[in-house]
Design brief:
alpha/beta, Rossmann fold, 7 strands, 240 residues, binds NADP nicotinamide-adenine-dinucleotide phosphate
Length: 240
């Protein structure tokens, strides 16, 4: 695979971290975005440096336009283009629907959905110039089937899938492919309060996924040339 310039949002921990590692090991120029977990981001950079790999880490709150613009300018100044954007950063919250406040709603939508709108808009300008690009959005099974006590989270993820399909149609003639990966239950910090034994009862393959299950699909979507506008569900058969 030819070397690509790839921005991975939310790469300090969990799924994003694994995606960044996988793509760096494949020889890509990875810009690993983080927001609060600066130590974890530095640790990732050092871990890869020990393996002889050089990645950039960039602090930016993807829910803020100016921060996103700073990250894009950094990338363009250093590499001159952006081939791939992985919109992975996200937050979660469990609350009864009747307890969700306006602030909760706005926090989830701003971090999970506006961030994808904003990062995509800022990056697409440069992709259009190259007439080439690949955007991969990490949505969720709950955007497909709905999550009880996660109505705002589920809406944000369904919104990402809608944006994916709209953009895929709008950008196809410019050779920019846009797809979503909708994971089921993946073993990360986000699920630290989840009872995996209970969840496994719902999953035909009877196991929890790993960040690597998602990273492998990202790698495939980057290499592929004929897939766009798809929501790829990786969930052990939880939703069929
Ligand atoms: P995680 O372990 O909690 O990690 C979340 C990552 O997102 C962290 O690196 C965090 O960075 C970053 N982040 C959050 N808000 C950000 C912001 N405003 N700006 C920049 N970075 C931000 O979660 P995960 O499980 O890896 O989840 C990754 C994605 O997969 C999310 O979109 C999530 O909704 C989706 N997903 C996860 C599962 C699952 O079962 N784990 C299932 C379906 C979908 P800092 O710590 O540096 O702030």
């Amino acid at each position: 695979m030819s070397q690509k310039v790839v921005i991975v949002t939310g790469a300090s921990r969990g799924i994003g971290r694994e995606i960044a590692k996988t793509l760096a090991k494949d020889g890509n120029h990875v810009i690993a975005n983080y927001n609060q977990s600066s130590e974890a981001a530095l640790h990732l950079q050092n871990e890869l440096k020990e393996a002889g790999l050089d990645i950039d880490i960039f602090k930016c709150d993807v829910s803020k336009r100016q921060d996103v613009q700073n990250m894009i300018h950094f990338t363009i100044n250093k590499y001159g283009k952006i081939d791939v954007l992985i919109n992975n950063a996200g937050v979660d919250q469990t609350k009864l629907f009747t307890d969700i406040t306006d602030a909760d709603w706005n926090w989830i939508i701003q971090n999970n959905l506006y961030s994808v709108f904003c990062c995509s808009q800022e990056v697409i300008k440069y992709m259009l110039h190259e007439k080439s690009g690949c955007i991969i959005n990490i949505s969720s099974i709950f955007g497909r089937i709905g999550g009880s006590c996660e109505a705002h989270y589920s809406c944000s993820k369904a919104g990402i899938d809608g944006l994916t399909k709209s953009l895929a149609k709008e950008l196809a003639l410019s050779h920019i492919r846009v797809n979503s990966i909708a994971p089921g239950a993946i073993d990360t910090d986000m699920n630290k309060n989840v009872d995996y034994e209970e969840v496994k009862k719902e999953i035909p393959l009877a196991k929890i996924g790993t960040p690597n299950d998602i990273a492998k699909c990202v790698k495939w979507l980057m290499e592929d040339e004929y897939t766009t506008g798809q929501i790829i569900e990786i969930n052990g058969g939880w939703n069929m």
